[in-house]
Amino acid sequence: MTDITQDQERDKDKPNDREMFDEELLIRALEEENMDLFRSEFIELHSYDQATFFARVEEGLRARLYHYLSPEEMAELFESLDIEEEDYQDILAEMNPSYAAEMLSHMYTDDAVDVLNELDKEQVVSYLTIMDDESAKEIKELLHYEEYTAGSIMTTEFVAISKNQTVRSAMYILKNEAPNAETIYYIYVIDDDKKLVGVISLRDLIISHDDVMISEIMSERVMSVGVSEDQEAVARQMKDYDFLALPVVDFQQHLLGIITVDDIMDVMEEEASDDYSKLAGISDLDSIDQNPFSAAKKRLPWLIALLFLGMFTASLISRFEDTLAVVPVLAIFIPVISGMSGNTGTQALAVAVRGIATGDIEKESRWSLIMREAGTGLITGTTCGVGISIIVYVWKGEFFLGLVIGVSLLISLFVATLAGILVPLVMHKLKVDPAVASGPFITTINDIISILIYFGLATIFMSYLL
């Protein structure tokens, strides 16, 4: 959440390797209340290192840190802070309300909104009331946008120029507004109605003659996203086109803000963590929980649901007690059939969820994808089926037993692969997050299907197995 330009300026004189800081010296300076020593060491650090140190310091020492740093300095640190969402409320509560409000007003608007979205409505109102009117107004404009949309992650700190001005006047505007802008690599061009009409790179602006009109050198082929666009789609577009920033417009093409690549990196990490959490059957995997009760609370809902599905599987097996009583050797291969079908179903599920997340499935026909996965399931099922048939025949000396197990494995893998690809595609079609078709859920469903296929075939051909 840091400014790319400012970060590069601060890094230009540093070595390539990450610079280590003397944590013990900083803590000693805080403990001894040596403000001069602390500031002389701390202010020279990169904002990431400052945030890392801040997160490690215990609450008592952090109180002194608020006295040693101005709200503006704390704002830069806060933009690099990587903590749990619920921890923002506790940290802000440590600060004097006026100090916290001023710090938030110095942050980039989109970053301040991210923090405020984690607070109670009463707290948000309180901070906005204390804050200066201009900052409060900018933050309020972004707060009303729905979460996880382009509007919720855009920043209003950008440079826009008119197409009816000269390069000289545009450079004057750029010099005045650059210190507060989140990035100046792209300068967006608007008309008299503040509609987005073009874009010009910083390089083209610098090398152009002072008296040239902006309309003559700007590019009219400017890509933008709607303010209500899903943040995942925005991230995909920035990745595909290697943009450093992307303008955000309303339905009438009025320029509202920009989304920078550093914010998109946060989005991609958030979306990846969210998808992986759902695939694992866990509600939240953003961090390793230190509290076992909290970790268990997140995992239990899925585990309880899967427990009941597992009991259904057990009751299903019990219906084939007569078959097992006659041919008890069938029980040996239950883990093989159910385990293999669960694995291949999860593989197909991962392909589907990743394809939906990256947009690759939108480019490829769903029917061709289903046919490809069906072919894959058939090939893998045939290979594994033939292999297990040979192994069982050599091991047990029973040809028909090997044949039943091999055919069961073939059909189970084929069906499991189709289930793994079809379930997320159908959910995506119904506008439901396909990641909720998690790995454990698909595995359990495939267990049920494979048991039905296995014991169904064994019952039908029982006379050959005796």
Largest sheet entry: 3 strands, mixed
> CATH topology of the largest domain, anyone?
Tetracycline Repressor, domain 2
Q: From the alpha-carbon coordinates, what is the Rg to the nearest angstrom?
A: 30 Å
Strand order across the largest sheet: 1-2-3
Which CATH top level class of the largest domain fits?
Answer: Mainly Alpha
Low-confidence stretches: 1-19
Number of helices: 25
Mind explaining what this structure looks like?
GO terms for molecular function: magnesium ion transmembrane transporter activity; metal ion binding. Belongs to the SLC41A transporter family. The chain is mainly alpha-helical and 466 residues long. It has helices at residues 4-11, 23-31, 35-42, 47-56, 59-68, 71-79, 87-94, 97-106, 109-116, 121-130, 133-143, 150-153, 167-177, 202-207, 214-217, 231-241, 261-280, 292-318, 321-326, 334-358, 360-363, 366-396, 399-429, 439-460, 462-465, and strands at 160-162, 186-190, 196-201, 225-226, 245-249, 255-260. A hairpin with a 5-residue loop joins β5 and β6 (255-260). α4 (47-56) packs across α6 (71-79). The termini are far apart.
